[in-house]
C-alpha cells in the first residue's frame, strides 16, 4: 500500500515539474541570422491558373535559445502570385513565429498565377524580419499562358478540322488527343506542347502532322513537368502514335521524356534538324514505314533510339545516334535495331521486306557492345548500306552483318569501334558535338554532305564533312 502511495505521489510530482517547465518556456528575439536550406526557390514552369507543386524551405535556428521571429511575410503581400504555409497556416504575412533552439521549421511555397502574356517571370521574396536584420529567400518561376486539351467522358478530345497551333500559348494535353482522318494539324515555330502523365496524341490514317520549327524557334514537345529534374527522365507521357497512311513532317523539333517518341505504323515521315531523346522504349518506333531523316540527334532510349520493324524504307543522313542511358541500365539500349518481322496486336508474326536502310555520314554509338543490330528473318528482302559512318559493333555478339567481310558492299568507307569523342554525352548536358581530334572528323562523303549542306546548328559542311549531325 505504501509503495502504491509513493508511486502515486511521484507521478504527480513529475507532472507538476513538467507543467512548470512548460510554463517557463520563453522565446527571445533572434540575436543571430537565421539559416535557410536554400536561398532561392526555382519553381517548375507553371501555366495559367494551374497550381504548381509544393516546394519546401527549411529555416534553422542555430542559437542555443528559443527565439520568436517577429515577422515572416511575402514582399508583395496579398498581391503576390505565391502563397506560403508557415506552421500549418496559409497566407502571406505571419507575426511572432516561434522556433525552438537548435531546431528548424518548414515553409511551404506554391504558385497558381494568372498569366498576363505568352510567357512571363513571376518573382517574389519571403522576408524574415528579426532583431538581427532582414533576410530573404527569393521565389522564382516562369509563367506561361496555356490552351488546354482535356479528355473527359463528355469531351473525346478530337481535332476534327484543319488546325494551326501558334506559339502565343502553350498547349497542355490531358489524356489522349486525336487528330481525325484527313485533318492537317500544323504546329508553328516556337510552340510548346506539353503532355500530362499518361497522355499522348493519335494521328489517324490520312491525317498529316506538320511540326514547323526553325533554328531560332524550336518546337518543344515534352511532359508537362518543366522542372529541370524531369529533363533527364523518361515516362512523363506516352507517345505520338501515327496510324497507317498518316504523314509526318518534322523540322527543328525537340521531342523528349516519354515512353515512345514517334510510334509509327505504315507512315511516311520526314524528319530534319531535330533532337529526340530520353524515352523509356524507343525514340522512333517504325513498323513498315518510310522514314527520311537528316541532321537528327538522338540519345538515351531504353530499348533502342530507332526501332525498325516489318522492314520498310529508311534513310538517315548526317545523324548522330548515341545511347548512353545510364538511368536505364537494365534495358538493351541500342542505337539502331532493324528487322523484317513484327508481332501484331493479335500475337501473329508478320514479315515484309526491308527495302532499304541507308546509314550515310552518320555516327551510331553506345555504351553497349553493339550500337547496331540487324536481324534478317526468312528470305525476305533485307537491303542495307552503311557508308562513311562511324559505328560500334562486335563480331562476337551477332550484330547481323559483317563489317570487314561484306561482298555485297553493304559497309563502305566506314570506321568501327572508335570512340567518337563526344563533347559531353551525359543526360544532363548531352552535347553530342565531337572534339577536334574525333575520328569522325572529315570522313563524310561529299555528295551526301552536299545534299545536306548545313549541319543541325546551321554550320556549313560542304567541304571536309564530318560524320554525324554536327560539322
TrEMBL record:
Q: What is this protein called?
A: Right handed beta helix region
Q: Which domain of life is it from?
A: Bacteria
User: Sorted alphabetically, which keywords does the UniProt record give?
Assistant: Signal
UniProt cross-references to InterPro entries, sorted A to Z: Pectin_lyase_fold/virulence
Kindly indicate where the leader peptide sits in this chain. Answer: 1-21
Taxonomic lineage of the native organism: Bacteria, Pseudomonadati, Bacteroidota, Flavobacteriia, Flavobacteriales
Amino acid at each position: 500500500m505504501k509503495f502504491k502511495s509513493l508511486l502515486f505521489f511521484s507521478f504527480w510530482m513529475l507532472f507538476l515539474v513538467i507543467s512548470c517547465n512548460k510554463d517557463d518556456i520563453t522565446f527571445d528575439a533572434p540575436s543571430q541570422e537565421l539559416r535557410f536550406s536554400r536561398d532561392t526557390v526555382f519553381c517548375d514552369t507553371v501555366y495559367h491558373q494551374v497550381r504548381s507543386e509544393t516546394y519546401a524551405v527549411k529555416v534553422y535556428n542555430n542559437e542555443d535559445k528559443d527565439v520568436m521571429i517577429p515577422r515572416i511575410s511575402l514582399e508583395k503581400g496579398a498581391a503576390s502570385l505565391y502563397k506560403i504555409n508557415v506552421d500549418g497556416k496559409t497566407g502571406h504575412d505571419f507575426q511572432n513565429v516561434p522556433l525552438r533552439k537548435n531546431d528548424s521549421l518548414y515553409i511551404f511555397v506554391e504558385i497558381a498565377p494568372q498569366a498576363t502574356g505568352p510567357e512571363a517571370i513571376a518573382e517574389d521574396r519571403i522576408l524574415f524580419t528579426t532583431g538581427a536584420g532582414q533576410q530573404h529567400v527569393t521565389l522564382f518561376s516562369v509563367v506561361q499562358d496555356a490552351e488546354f486539351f482535356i479528355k473527359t467522358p463528355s469531351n473525346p478530345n478530337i481535332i476534327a478540322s484543319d488546325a494551326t497551333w501558334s506559339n502565343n500559348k502553350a498547349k497542355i494535353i490531358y489524356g489522349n488527343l486525336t487528330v481525325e482522318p484527313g485533318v492537317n494539324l500544323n504546329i508553328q515555330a516556337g510552340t510548346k506542347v506539353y503532355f500530362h502523365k499518361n497522355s499522348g496524341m493519335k494521328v489517324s490514317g490520312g491525317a498529316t502532322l506538320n511540326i514547323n520549327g526553325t533554328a531560332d524557334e524550336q518546337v518543344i514537345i515534352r511532359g508537362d513537368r518543366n522542372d529541370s529534374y524531369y529533363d533527364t527522365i523518361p515516362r512523363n507521357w506516352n507517345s505520338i502514335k501515327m496510324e497507317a497512311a498518316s504523314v509526318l513532317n518534322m523540322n527543328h523539333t525537340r521531342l523528349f521524356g516519354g515512353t515512345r517518341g514517334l510510334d509509327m505504323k505504315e507512315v511516311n515521315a520526314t524528319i530534319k534538324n531535330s533532337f529526340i531523346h530520353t524515352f523509356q522504349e524507343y525514340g522512333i518506333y517504325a513498323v513498315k514505314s518510310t522514314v527520311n531523316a537528316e541532321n537528327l540527334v538522338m540519345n538515351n532510349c531504353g530499348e533502342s533510339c530507332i526501332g525498325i520493324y516489318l522492314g520498310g524504307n529508311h534513310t538517315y543522313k548526317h545523324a548522330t545516334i548515341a545511347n548512353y542511358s545510364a538511368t536505364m541500365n537494365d534495358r538493351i539500349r541500342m542505337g539502331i535495331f532493324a528487322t523484317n518481322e513484327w508481332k501484331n496486336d493479335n500475337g501473329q508474326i508478320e514479315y515484309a521486306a526491308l527495302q532499304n536502310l541507308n546509314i550515310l555520314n552518320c555516327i551510331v554509338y553506345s555504351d553497349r557492345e553493339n550500337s547496331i543490330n540487324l536481324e534478317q528473318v526468312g528470305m525476305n528482302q533485307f537491303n542495307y548500306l552503311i557508308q562513311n559512318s562511324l559505328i560500334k559493333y562486335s563480331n562476337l555478339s551477332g550484330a547481323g552483318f559483317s563489317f570487314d567481310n561484306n561482298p555485297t558492299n553493304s559497309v563502305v568507307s566506314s570506321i568501327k569501334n572508335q570512340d567518337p569523342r563526344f563533347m559531353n554525352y551525359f543526360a544532363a548536358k548531352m552535347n553530342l558535338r565531337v572534339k577536334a581530334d574525333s575520328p569522325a572528323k572529315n570522313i563524310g562523303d561529299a555528295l551526301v554532305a552536299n545534299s545536306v549542306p548545313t549541319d543541325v546548328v546551321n554550320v556549313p559542311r560542304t567541304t571536309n564533312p564530318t560524320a554525324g549531325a554536327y560539322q
